[in-house]
Amino acid sequence: MRRLGGGALLALAAVQGAASASARPMLYEWGAYPEALAAHLREAGGDAARQAARLEQQLQRTAAAGRAVPPGLHAHLALLHAQLGNDAKAVEHLRAEKALYPESARYMDSLLANTRRQPADAAAEAPK
Amino acid sequence: MSRVLRGAAMTLAVALGGLLGGCATVDKAPADPWPALREARPTSVLVLPPVNDSPDVLAPGSVMAQAVLPLAERGYYVFPVALSNETLRLNGVQTPRDAQDISPQRLREVFGADAALYLQVRAYGSVYRVISAESVTTVDARLVDLRDGRTLWTGSATASSAEQRGGQQGGLSSLLLLAIIEQVASNFSDLNQEVAGAAMRRLLAGPSPRGLLPGPRGPPPRSGARP
Questions:
Q1: H-only helix segments in chain A
Q2: Which of the residues A5, B77, B110, B198 could staple to B159 if both were Cys, CB 3.0 to 4.6 A apart?
Q3: For chain A, how long is the longest CA-to-CA vector?
Q4: Closest residue on chain A to B42 (Cα)
Q5: Is the dihedral of CA A64, A66, A71, A74 positive or negative?
Q6: What pLDDT, in 10s, does the model give residues A23-81?
Q7: Which residues have CB under 8 Å from B120's CB, separation 6+?
Q8: B153 Cβ neighbours under 8 A, 6+ residues apart
Q9: Which of A 26-55 lie inside 8 A of B, CB atoms?
Q10: How far is B15 from A18, CA to CA, in rounded Å?
Q11: Contact list, B12 vs chain A (CB under 8 Å)
């Protein structure tokens, strides 16, 4: 039998452990997003300004680290900005979501069309 | 001498573990339980508001939020849940039941999603036993192809804060365990969220073949095996 050094053994065990626990590297940099999402969905909107600021910072950190932005983060930021009455920012993030994830194109396009027609509509408060 | 033996035994155990792991997950997978899912190859998933059977009003929001990460990490585009909720609400859809009653065709028209995930929260939050309280989440799920209405996959998972005490198989992660230790005294609602997260990871990121197949954005299969 081949002899493995302690380091190799450890590494192998680590790989094995990672495989069985699905602890492989994440596809996306989630950062502050899951917490913001949970707060938004549980607290009927929560503090949109605070969440938007946190997620904008998160995007900067993610870009600096060269990591991938998870699906929905830009779109969620668009919702927060729309609720805050900042339609230009909302449009920017809807476009970013669509550019990053073409799967969202139909939905993003319809939201963008709505935003152009009736900016105030998108600023409606969050669902209970 | 004994150290060498121990080393060899460990090497063997690790190698055996790898072998067994490989067999169980890829090589000798039994007949594909979800041929429709494999054939349909959905790329995007709309998570609909969960129907809530539990008495906790926070359950649907928690479960919905906790569905996003495991589903996206599985390789699917997940529609932005807070935004899609808002779209449904602005279109007069008041309850999760109403949302889940919308026809697949209509959902496809509005969102352009390939598939929708229908969730039902069977249990959430505190369950009181004779001598202790635990937090439990149980969720049933159904993935439906919005292009033809076919059910592609169904699953059910449960997680409990009591798992670490019982020493049962498939215990919660050490991270969750830490979270429980830190939070149990302060905030039960946070504990409930952690447990809901564990249940959703189990539901959506569990091992093949019962678990959801990896989506197109997922990581490549391990050790060069083909799915």
A1: 6-20, 33-42, 48-64, 73-83, 87-100, 105-117
A2: B198
A3: 72
A4: A103
A5: positive
A6: 578 999 999 999 999 999 987 767 899 999 999 999 999 999 999 999 999 999 999 99
A7: B50, B51, B53, B139, B140, B141
A8: B34, B36, B37, B141, B142, B143, B212, B213
A9: 26-28, 30, 34, 37-38, 40-42
A10: 15
A11: 1
CATH code of the region B29-214: 3.40.50.10610
CA–CA distance, A113 with B176 (Å, rounded to integer): 43
Q: Verify whether the Cβ–Cβ distance B90 to A76 is below 8 Å.
A: no
Pick from B126, B135, B117: nearest CA to B67 = B117
B4-34 pLDDT, tens per residue?
444 444 444 444 444 444 444 444 556 778 8
The nearest CA of chain B is from the CA of A99 a distance in Å of 13
High-pLDDT (> 70) share of chain B, %: 68
Chain B CB within 8 Å of residue A75 CB? yes
Q: Which of B218, B42, B78 is nearest to A33 (CA)?
A: B78
Tokens read off for B143:
């993935």
Please indicate whether, in this complex, the C-beta atoms of B72 and A104 are within 8 angstroms of each other: no
User: Cα distance from B188 to chain A (closest Cα, Å)?
Assistant: 14
Task: Write out pLDDT tens, residues B169-178.
Answer: 445 555 555 5
Nearest-CB residue to B205 (from A9, A22, A41): A22
Would an 8 Å CB–CB cutoff place A12 in contact with chain B? yes
Contact (CB, 8 A) for B196 and B124 = yes
Domain extents in chain A: 28-123
CB contact under 8 A, A104 and B112: yes
0.90 exceeded by the pTM?
Answer: no
Helix, strand, coil: what percent of chain B each, to 5? 45, 20, 35
Tell me the chain A residues in contact with residue B207 when contact means C-beta distances shorter than 8 Å. Answer: 22
